[in-house]
Specification:
The protein is of the alpha+beta class and about 110 residues long. It contains three helices and four strands; from the N terminus they run ββααβαβ. It has one domain. It has a two-stranded antiparallel ribbon with strand order 1-2. Strand 1 (about 10-15) and strand 2 form a beta hairpin. The protein is elongated and about 50 Å long. The protein starts with 8 loop residues before the first strand and ends with a strand.
C-alpha cells in the first residue's frame, strides 16, 4: 500500500462534532485485486475499483458524495466541514450546492 497522493485507496468520513461518532463513510479505490490478477477478461465479481482519476481527487469525490446523500440517507444537512488547510474537498462541496444555494457550509480548520 502507498500513502498520500499515490495511494490506491482513500477513506472520507463524516463525524458528529458532539459525540465524535462516525455518521457516514465513503471508501474509494483505484484498485481491484481480481481485475489486476486476471489474465485477459476477469470473471464476474464484485469489483472493488470505484474511482478513476488521481489519488488526490479521492478526498474531493468522497466529500461530495457524503454531502450529496446526507439528506436522503441520514435525514440531516451537514453545516460544517473539517479539513486540512490545502483541502480541495471543501470548495468542491460548496460549489456542488448539495442543499441549495441559500444553505451556507462553513469550513473548520484542522491544525496539526
Amino acid at each position: 500500500q502507498k500513502r498520500g497522493y499515490s495511494s490506491l485507496n482513500g477513506v472520507v468520513t463524516v463525524s458528529s462534532f458532539d459525540t465524535s461518532k462516525v455518521l457516514d463513510v465513503e471508501v474509494l479505490s483505484k484498485y481491484c485485486h481480481v481485475c489486476s490478477t486476471s489474465k485477459g477478461k476477469a470473471k464476474p465479481h464484485f469489483c472493488k475499483k470505484n474511482h478513476e482519476g488521481s489519488s488526490g481527487a479521492m478526498e474531493v469525490e468522497g466529500a461530495k458524495l457524503l454531502f450529496a446523500r446526507s439528506e436522503c440517507t441520514r435525514k440531516v444537512r451537514y453545516k460544517n466541514y473539517l479539513g486540512d488547510g490545502d483541502s480541495k474537498g471543501f470548495q468542491a462541496v460548496v460549489d456542488s450546492q448539495p442543499y441549495g444555494k441559500d444553505f451556507q457550509i462553513e469550513k473548520l480548520e484542522c491544525v496539526g
